[in-house]
Amino acid sequence: MINPEMNKLVEVLLAGDHAAALAEARRLRAAGMASERIVTEGLEAAMQRLDDKCTVESFNLLEIMLAGRAVSAVVNELYPEGVPPEQGRDTFVIATLEGDVHDLGKNIAKMVLIGKGYRVVDLGKDCPVETLVNAAEREHAHAVLVSGLITPVIPQVRKVRPALDKRGLGGIRVVAGGAALKQSSAEALNVDYVAETAFDGARYLDSVARGALS
Amino acid sequence: MPELILGIDGETHRIPFEPGPSVRDILDATDFRVRSGCRGIGACGLCRVRVMEGEAGEPTQNERLHLTLAQLSQGVRLACQVIPRHDMKIEILNPAPPSNWKSSQDAALLHILHEPAVEGRWLPPEINHPCGVAVDLGTTHMCLSLFDLAKGRWLADRWGRNPQQNFGADVITRLAAAAESPGAAREIGRLAVAAIGEALLDIATRDGFDLRRIVNVTVVGNTAMLALLSSRNFELLLQPDYWTRPVVCTPLETSGWVAEWGINPAAEVDVVAPLAGFVGSDLLAGLVSTRFTEGAAPALFIDFGTNSEIALWSGEALWVTASAGGPAFESSGISCGAPAEAGAVFRVRLDEAGCVACQIIGDDRAKGVCGSGLVDLVAYLLDSGRLTSAGKFAGGETNYTFSAGGTELTLTKADVDLLQRAKAAIGVGIRALCGQAGVGMKDLQRVYVGGAFGRYLDVGSAQAIGLLPLVPPETVELAGNTALAGCCDIMLSSLAAERLNQLRSRARLVNLAHYPDFEQVFFENLYLQPLREA
Prior knowledge:
The complex is a heterodimer of chains A (about 210) and B (about 525).
Chain A: H1 7-14, H2 18-30, H3 35-56, H4 61-78, E1 91-96, H5 104-115, E2 119-122, H6 129-138, E3 143-147, H7 154-166, E4 173-177, H8 186-189, E5 193-195, H9 198-208
Parallel strand pairs in A: 1-2, 1-3, 3-4, 4-5
Helix pairs in contact in A: 1-2, 1-3, 2-4, 3-4, 4-5, 5-9, 6-7
Chain B: E1 3-8, E2 11-16, H1 23-28, E3 48-53, H2 61-66, H3 69-73, E4 76-78, E5 88-92, E6 131-137, E7 141-148, E8 153-161, H4 171-180, H5 182-207, E9 214-221, H6 223-230, H7 255-261, E10 268-271, H8 281-289, E11 299-303, E12 307-313, E13 318-324, E14 344-350, E15 356-360, E16 368-369, H9 371-383, E17 399-404, E18 407-412, H10 413-437, E19 446-450, H11 452-456, H12 459-465, E20 476-480, H13 482-492, H14 494-506, E21 507-509, H15 518-526
Parallel strand pairs in B: 1-5, 6-9, 9-10, 11-19, 13-21, 14-16, 19-20
Antiparallel strand pairs in B: 1-2, 3-4, 3-5, 6-7, 7-8, 11-12, 12-13, 14-15, 17-18
């Protein structure tokens, strides 16, 4: 159920209207609404609707990217210093692994998770496994997400779990997604979950996370 | 345009044609071929048809030789001897056995030979009329051209599907299949070799050609196709590091191929080396055939495909890149898509009543829409306000249904999305090359469009959705299969082979993966709107 105060924000986010989304977020804050509520009740609702729309109305890539940009703009407006780690929400580290330079899919996953109120540390593309593990340790990540468009990246994906275990980070979940990876099983990739879409991955993380903003 | 009207299995097919070619030539480009055993010169007498309506002219001497008076009086004729000028209704009396190979009647599909004659190629003296075969080994289609090497004269063309598609429609899937299992790798290579053999056999049986005259086979293709053909280094192509590095694809041993094809035992097989992992010898051949780097005028070359290759000539320097945008230009993955073969809608127009009017390749019934038809359709929907530049149907519709030759076809929003992604990848490539070379799009004085997709493309539609830069339309040359044309040039002429070597040392590779503005430029180019300067 969408909080009626958020209707306008959700609507402009879905329309991908970046300027209107920023203006609406500013208006809500000026009216005394806490940043956390704007995220949980506005952005998260927009993400839920976007998930439905992608399935039912086949939102195209451009619409998803537009919504993603609007969401990122609002998050940057609310948290210009970056999302603080100490607000009880889970932190995820996300990367496109070394050997793969296609990161549109990763960026969409990041946008969905930010929209759901998680803290996301983005390591970009062509990222070595070691950098990923270092970041997971440093940021106290609850999960790491790896995306791959092309199949040669699969051997890299298989290295993530043992590399985390070696540092005593066995509790961190590993989620894989992307065109090349979603054809494999979690077992074959040595990960906890293989996400069909960014939204599917986010649902899995919702189910295992301590909760986003509470 | 006059039509050839055929009754096949109780159904009538109408095939429009430009007057000029014979009935056999017209049929050769369709799925309804007539049996034949010579090159269409009236020698074999096999291509019997009955002319039921229309003016077929007096029987030729060859027809009188092969057909009885009773047959002639019943309207029986040889398809290769009848040249229709107006509508003609016929029945095929002696249909050809089904074949995966077609010859092309569309004269425009035939390359224009730029080299006047052969220089420098050694010809075995003991062989009468030595011949050579140029092969363009594409991911989706394979095309061959047969030439008399001594005279430089074209003899026959064939094209058909690449049979490796069971191992994946796209290059990466096929490479991964080969890398996973040595058995699969062998089979993928074998399929390509066998397909070339099948096409040659089709020429031998249909055109009465002695394959032992063939003393040279020259092959161009994208790097992955060549590596899979030769079973060499294909696993390297799965590593992005090699996309900008040379990958050796020269076969170690070709005597087995020569024996399988039944060509002259002394025949040479030349697999033209690609430039790098993502720039094949198909692109190099296209640059040879269009004389791309001659003159000081800036020029752009685009060979559209699943992995489109793009080249830019600044007048001084040559820049090359590849952009993987998905298979929309080949209409693969499009719900109402069909390959650019008989039965494909290749052009969409509005008729006087404002309704969609479709032109169909080699038939009056539509199986689906090929790449150029898709571009036309989307441009028309955009222009008429039925589709927004963001790729959304007006009024929140999720699809658009139209009738093409009695078939109902539906274009979905997901189809439009695939085209948007493919064209965005092209837009990024053009912008990146123009940026590197310091050339503005408005400065381009020649734009070459290669590939089967480019053959039927409407330049105005392509410009309207941002697939080609907004240059004066006469600047754009729809160059057809430039890879095959260039392969013929390289096979026939040592001058062309020399130009190929110059291109090799000249080309500078641009890796879009390292293009800093990739995401922003890709995003801007997802919109269906004319291309913009940076």
